[in-house]
């Protein structure tokens, strides 16, 4: 077991914000610091959660109503936390997660209109007060993000693009939601301007991580 404490960092943002690319950059950075790193994702991250992922991310955009979608998300999340994240943290590893519960606050709470408080109540029921040590929120204009996401899925059959096909108004609410989340929990969250080239965004991310961990006394 590592002598260093585990560290949990989540990556958030709208569609096409570059989270998946940047999570690999941060993985490399932590490995250079001599840390063991686990990269995971939501929905998914454990065998049971991956099965729920398929239900959530494929099919018609109206396949689930907002409440059903939220419950599926937290069912997946509960399994992910118990089977993947907590054991890795107990072993002193750095866990980098592509989306976590803030995505439910943004997507189902703001995007689908259930309200942030409704989702935070589900959060408490499913996993208590468990949350990331640091959350990185990648922000960019909606059109830029959707264009990037569209290009990513253009040549992929049966793509997990259900959320990308929701209307622009949904994505505007989503972006506004993430901004409000970053303000509500400013000690934990860092907003990163993702409307630049990959290297520039990576530099901003590393700076935000150093700042965030210093602010927590790490």
Please tell me about this protein's structure:
- With 218 residues, the chain is an alpha/beta fold.
- The chain has a single domain, classed as P-loop containing nucleotide triphosphate hydrolases (Rossmann fold).
- It has eight helices and five strands, in the order βαβααβααβααβα.
- It has helices at residues 19-32, 47-57, 66-90, 101-111, 116-127, 142-153, 168-184, 198-215, and strands spanning 7-13, 37-41, 94-98, 134-139, 189-193.
- The chain has a five-stranded parallel beta sheet with strand order 2-3-1-4-5, with helices on both faces.
- Helix 4 crosses helix 7 (168-184).
- It is globular and about 45 Å long.
- The relative contact order is 0.20.
- The model has no long low-confidence stretch (mean pLDDT 89).
Write a brief structural summary:
The protein has helices at 19-32, 47-57, 66-90, 101-111, 116-127, 142-153, 168-184, 198-215; strands at residues 7-13, 37-41, 94-98, 134-139, 189-193.
CATH topology: Rossmann fold
Largest sheet: 5 strands, parallel
Radius of gyration: 16 Å
Helical segment tally?
8
Order of helices and strands: EHEHHEHHEHHEH
Estimate nothing, just give the exact number of structural domains. 1
Characterize the overall form. Answer: globular
- Helix content bin: 55-70%
**Measured distance between first and last alpha carbons:** 19 Å
Q: On the 0-100 scale, what is the average pLDDT?
A: 89
**Second rung of CATH, namely the architecture:** 3-Layer(aba) Sandwich
Q: Give the spatial strand order of the biggest sheet.
A: 2-3-1-4-5
CATH class: Alpha Beta
The number of distinct β-strands equals 5
